[in-house]
Structures are given as C-alpha cells and as structure tokens.
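User: Here's a chain of 600 residues. Predict its fold as tokens.
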Amino acid sequence: MSFVFVNGRLVGKADEGGKLAKEIINSRRKNEIDPTVNVRYKKEADSLFINSDGGRLLRALIVVKNGKPLLTEDDAKLLSSGHITWDDLIKSGKIEYLDADEEEEAYIALDQSDLTPEHTHMEITPMSVLGMQAALLPFVNHSNAHRNVTAVKSVQQGVGTYSTNYLIRMDNDSMIAIDQQIPIVKTRLYDEETYKMHVFGQNIVVAVVSYLGYNMDDAIIINKASIERGMFRAMFFRPYKVEEVKYVGGQSDYITVPDKDVAGYRSEDAYRFLDEDGIAYPSAHVNSGDVVIGRVSPPRFISSIDKFRLGVQKHVESSVECRTGEEGVVENVYLTSTSEGNRYVSLKVRQDRRVEIGDKFGSRSGQKGVVGLLLNPEDMPFTISGVVPDLIFSPYSLPSRMSLSYLFELIGGKVGALAGRHVDGTPFTGEKIEDLRKELSSYGFRENGVETMYNGITGEEMKTKIFVGDMTYIRLKHFVSNKIQWRARGPIQLLNRQPTEGKSKSGGLRLGEMEKDCFVSYGAAMSLKERFDSDKITIPICTKCGMVAVYNVKKKTGYCLIDGEDAPIRLIEVSASFKILLDELKSIGIYPKILVGKKI
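Assistant: Prediction complete.
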C-alpha cells in the first residue's frame, strides 16, 4: 500500500503507487486532466505525491518515447505558420509541463543527437536551461557556473537607459549612460526581446596583458584619450522634493527665500541661485552647500512659556541644500500639490560623470574590476598595425576563474569588427569557436587572437604575444564619487559625543579591533591615540574614594560628594562612553572605584 499526498496533505492510500503515477501522467497527456497537475512516485518511501497548487515553477519539455521526440518537424512548421497553437501541442501530449518534483524522475536530453531509448523528455532548445538574463551572456556554456552567476548580477548593475522618459521622472539616484552600443557578439535573445530599446555597454578594444602593475588583481587600465572622446560617459540625477506641510494650530512651512531675521539664516551667497519663489532656476550650476529650495518652518518646540503667551514666534530656516560632495546643473523644476492640498516642489540636479579612478566596470563574463589608472595614449601599448587598446585587462584573472567566455567573446568581437557583422554567441547553439578562428585567420590575423605589441613608454617590442580583441564592457552603477567620504571636523552625537554615523550626516569612519591592530603593529602610537580621541573628555576623580568628583574650572577648586572639600582630586582623560558607563553602573547601585596611578 502506498501513501497518497495531494499538495502536501495525506489523502489516502493506493495499492500500487507507481502504476497510479503512470496512469495520471497518461491521463494528462490525453488532456483528460489539467496539464499543470504533476505527480511523482518515491519508491524508497512508497509514497505518491500529486501537486496542483498555484505558484509552482513549471518547465515545458518535449515528450520522448522509444528514443524519439513526439514533436516532429511538421509540427514545428505548422506552429510557425499559425495552423496550430501552443495549446494544441499541450493537449495532444507532445509537450508537457514538469515541476521540480516530477523533473526528478525525468531523464532529459539537451538536443536530438543526445537521445537514447532511456530518455523521457527533450529540451525545446538547450538555451532554456538558462534564465532570461543568463541567456543574454555570450558563450556562457563555456564558463564556470559560479562565474556565470556573478556575470548575471554584474549585468543587472549596468548603467544604460532604464527608461525613455527619464528626463521627466523623479527617481532616486538614477543614472543614464550617454552613448550605448549593441554588442558585436550577441545571443538570439537580443533579437527576440527587442534589446535595442534598452541597450547598455560599449564595444571596445581590449588587450590582455600585465602592464605597469596598475591592473593588478581585478583592476583595469583605461586609455585616457578614449575617456576624453566620451567613452562610458554617464549622467547622474539627484532629485530634491519639498512639501509645504501644515501643522496643528494653523502653522505651516513656507517655500520662499528666507529673510535675514529667520533663525539659522545662512549667508547671502548660499541663496544666490534662488528665484523670487524660493526655488533654484533651471540651468543653475549648484555646488555642495548651495540652497536649491528655500524654506522656513515654524519652531518645533516652544522655548519658553512667556514667548508663547506673548505670541512671539520666530521661524526657523529649514532649506534644502545640495548634498555634501555633490554638484551639478538644475535640470527641471515641477510645481504641484499633494492630495491634502499642500504645495509640493520637486527639483532634479544633473551631474556629468566622466570615468575616474575607482569607477567599476564589468564584462558579460563576470570579470569585473575598478579603474586603477587612466593612462595617457602615448604611454599605452600598441599593435604592429597601430591599434591602441581602450582597456588593459590582467591575464592572471583568467586561469583561476575559468571564464573561457571572456576569451571567446574577444575572438568573436574581433571577427565581427573585421567582417562588419554580428557574431552569434548563443549558448549551445551559436557559432563554433573553431569556425571563428578560421575566419580570423582568413583576415590576416593569427587564428588564436594574439598579436605583436610594443611598449608605449620604451618603444620596445614585447617579448610575448598579447591577446587582443573587441568585446562589450559595461559601466556599473558603483561610482567612486558616490562612495567617497571624508571628515575633518563635524557634528557629534548628543549621548556619547562621538562623531555621527553615515555619509549623509557628515559622519566619521569607525575604526574597529582589526584597524586598531594595524596601528599597533606599525607602531603608530600617536596616530592611534589621535584616532581614539574623538570623544575625549576630562573628568575629576577623587583619589581617596575613586568616584567622580565636582570641579570648578574657573576657580580650579573641587570637592568630593563623599569625602568633602579637602579630598584630593585629579583630572584624568577618558572617553565619554566610559563616563556614561560609570554613570549607568552608579544608577543600578554598583560602586565603580577608579584607582588613579602616577602619570608616566
């Protein structure tokens, strides 16, 4: 007797679970039951599992019997001509949907040449084993699976044109690449999914060589002349939004140019880009700290009951300024109102982003890295025909990662550039690398893609042949100008007197145990002390009882709450966090006695 489970619930028993599973599958193929019902018989548990719940992932596969697919060439021609539909193939049992459970019992062939009498199903196309984004990667079947996952994640971060109406949108941190190109090496999915509507990446010349050491590990060297000609140029948009909020009691915010009598008034220079309505005018070039939307707000907290009785109210300056470390041109301004009837202003600042050291790039092979050097064109290596590469990639990143698709795309891009055509790099079914190498040889180049190159600095011929080709590189959204953070002096937290946290709050960089160990190992004692003095305070300690005493800084006199005025008091430096700890210990009845030694 076999246990029968339907959607995970035990519903009964069957005499022969395996026989019942075959009967259900045959009924499904005869269109007697729903095509989305799946069944699996587990022999070791003698249990039958039937799944029909929604939300399962199903895969369409061609049914195979006696080593031959039920779907024929004639069926494919009828389908393409429109005489039959996809549903007709499902109802006739030539194609069926399998979920993850039933797929465990299936033996699936990639294509017709792999079929044997043991096979139960065949892929409609070998590319269907990949997802939508993985199918965009050329020659992906030749690379390590882990690297392909990285490549998919990398492509998702590419800067392109995410929307055609980006000029009137107010998305947060949106980035637009100015000049994008369709890849020379592409897959069938590029044509099927109208890829021309949202292109990202550029076709560039890449040399695989270790040069000057600035492309160590995953770093890359980029030709400075290519950048000056506009390669990988991008725009970054930062929106600013303000609402005239109405508060209880009839008070409200006002979007206007603040008067000089407003509390917290900035300098006149900070408001120089504001029009009469308090909003920066379009095409104004604002810098960090410049006000883009002027605003005054009522005081949030009444300072004294007397002022409240007299009705004296002073507005507080609460303008929106250009963020720290950013600058740009005011792109467009929109004036509207919210559903509550409050006035609403949205403004967008556009910033031109050229490539700089630290920006991140990636290929469609998962080989991503940051710019280590922008090299002058006269110092770049060049081929015997005078071709100067746009990008120099380190060869040491290839053997360990086993990303052969990188090398194949370089050869395919080189063939496509010479022949003036697109190369089909579709996984499993694309052009064979042997054919591409023969075609490359017919154009007068070495069939393995290497060329003789010369050192741009010394002019000497390089002793080894350098792998050179064309491929698509993508600028990723990780701009170094968005991540850079620095601080000399700035705001501190109220509780522990340490620097604030976060880039937007002009925060400091926290040093942990490991960073502290680095300072210690280098013997940088003064740097270590300076780093850990961010919340330094001086407190008076009674050397007799070890408790925190009271001290008058002006009179330079003090007394202890326990031992009186004659108690010996010493001033010591501690962190504010330690002082808080002492106070918290005292609050729960613990006596924190401090033993003060001699000053060394």
